[in-house]
Amino acid sequence: MDVKGQAAVVTGGASGLGAATARLLALRGSKVAILDLNEAKGQALTKEIGGIFATCEVSSEDSVKGAFAAAKAAHGPARILINCAGIGGASRIVGRDGPHDLTRFMKIITVNLVGTFNVTRIFAAEASNLEPLNEDGERGVIVMTASVAAFEGQIGQVAYSASKGGIVGMTVPIARDLAARGVRICTIAPGVILTPLADDLSPEARKALDASVPFPSRMGHDHEYASLALQICENGYLNGETIRLDGALRMAPR
Ligand SMILES: NC(=O)c1ccc[n+]([C@@H]2O[C@H](COP(=O)([O-])OP(=O)(O)OC[C@H]3O[C@@H](n4cnc5c(N)ncnc54)[C@H](O)[C@@H]3O)[C@@H](O)[C@H]2O)c1
Predict the structure, then answer these.
(1) Which CATH code of 3.40.50.720, 3.40.50.300, 3.90.1300.10, 1.10.10.60 fits the domain covering 7-192+221-244?
(2) Which of 14, 19, 93, 120 is 20 to 30 A away from residue 223, measured at CA?
(3) Does ligand 1 lie within 6 Å of residue 30's CB atom?
(4) pTM, entire model
(5) 225 is catalytic
(6) HSE-CB of 7 using CA atoms within 13 angstroms
(7) What tens digit of pLDDT does each residue of 118-140 get?
């Protein structure tokens, strides 16, 4: 799909990987709607790149439908969805205080997995009704964001890994469900990428993370994620695949 002139929705677009993708899509001429809980950062980015910001809780049906309505009123129906909203959290299944807190587990699943599913289903239903754009009959494209933790979660990542494994697991069935509707979907599984989350790392921890990546031996950049997300939008033959973006990193247990 040529992204120029198309309406795009980026969840988690106020920060990190979502913000980098929102910037790149805007640079390539897409009309970008940023959906995020962080209004201050979202509004600031909108001032910089244009488009609109809508406050959104990805796991709420009403919130997502309201945000999509605002985006549609400003830009017309969206053809591109980038799912970047997500949260982390570290806790072992059994810790010093006993079993893993169930509420914490459910929160991570709710935001990362249910939230991604919720936004994707609402986008896909709308995109399915649009006119095809090209000879393939393409109507829309979706990017979801998992993590290498979906494949080799570290100690303390049981909830996060479960949420990201769920996203990987949804990729093929959603591609199959949406095939007749002309909507493609791929998932990016990033390794360790420099985003605001890394600001808290000590220089030693940062050095260790850099060294853990075979080649190039450094953390990834947010623009490297954005460029892959753009390629997924542009390359009409990419569908139903989870792509690792990790410099050949295979996470150790800790
Ligand atoms: N940075 C990395 O190294 C890395 C690696 C693997 C996977 N990921 C995944 O990539 C995605 C983006 O990560 P990031 O590093 O850019 O993080 P980030 O914290 O910089 O950005 C995440 C954004 O999501 C928003 N958000 C959180 N919960 C939300 C909710 N319930 N509803 C709406 N918005 C919500 C936050 O406000 C924030 O703006 C996440 O899903 C994360 O799990 C990141």
Answers:
(1) 3.40.50.720
(2) 120
(3) no
(4) 0.98
(5) no
(6) 19
(7) 999 999 999 999 999 999 999 99
